[in-house]
Amino acid sequence: MKRYPTAKSISSLLDTCYDFSGFKTITLPTIGFVFGNGVTVDVDATGILFQQSASQFCLAFAGNKDDSSVGIIGNVQQKRLQVVYDVAGGKVGFAPAGCQ
User: Fold this and answer.
1) Are the CB atoms for 42 and 32 separated by under 8 Å?
2) In 1-100, which ranges are continuous DSSP H helix?
3) Which of 23, 33, 36, 83 suits 69 as a labelling partner, its CA being 20 to 30 A distant?
4) How far apart are CA 18 and CA 15, in angstroms?
5) By C-alpha distance, which of 88, 98, 86 is closest to 41?
6) CB 59: neighbour CB atoms within 10 A?
7) Closest CA to 64 of 17, 21, 12
8) Rounded CA gap, 49 and 70, in Å?
9) Averaged over 4-28, what is the pLDDT?
10) What is the pLDDT of residue 100?
């Protein structure tokens, strides 16, 4: 993302923003959530950026203080995922699909 000019943050949570005015195309990094047992859930490109205005976008991720803090996979990242909760088994599963 270093090739794109930064923009003013829109909140204390979404603090990594870019100005894409003047760009016809952009290239996004590949992002995945890595869980125990080597399981990786790839984030669809639609779950990487949050659009603030016609040309301003922010990374749709917020940091936490340390590894012991709660992590949340938000609705932006889940847009193209089916999420299955096995409450009794204490597991959660992910598969490509979800809302468009």
Assistant:
1) yes
2) 75-78
3) 83
4) 10
5) 98
6) 17
7) 12
8) 21
9) 91
10) 56
